[in-house]
Write a structure and sequence with these properties.
CATH superfamily: Fe,Mn superoxide dismutase (SOD) domain
Mean pLDDT: 88
Number of strands: 0
Radius of gyration: 17 Å
Shape: globular
Strand content: under 5%
């Protein structure tokens, strides 16, 4: 059976305060990301063992066209959400981000693309 688990945060829930409060982080991690985890496991669990035994969500998503139609949408949605949140948590850190004028310049440059 598929057994993706909610990855632990690489920091405490309050590590990003005052920008993101601990309660928001806790809810986002334990409820929102957990829902993607549960949905991915459920979708994979409805398929055969060749899918249930996979443990690399990126490989599953790379080959999502080979997922049976009955589960493709759910696996794409929940697998994408699961992986996106893992990236999200790991790309934030206390004291990260430059903030200020330089960030706004980056936004303007991106908008010009």
């Amino acid at each position: 059976m598929a057994n993706f688990t909610l990855p632990p945060l690489p920091y405490s829930y309050d590590a990003l305060e005052p920008h993101i409060d601990a309660r928001t982080m806790e809810i986002h991690h334990t409820k929102h990301h957990q829902a993607y985890t549960d949905g991915l496991n459920k979708a994979l669990g409805n398929l055969g063992p060749e899918w249930q035994n996979k443990n690399d969500v990126v490989e599953i998503l790379k080959n999502v066209d080979s997922v049976p139609d009955s589960a493709r949408g759910a696996i794409n949605f929940h697998g994408g959400g699961y992986n996106n949140h893992a990236l999200f948590w790991n790309n934030m850190k206390k004291g990260g981000g430059r903030g200020g004028k330089r960030d706004q310049e980056d936004v303007w440059q991106f908008q010009r693309l």
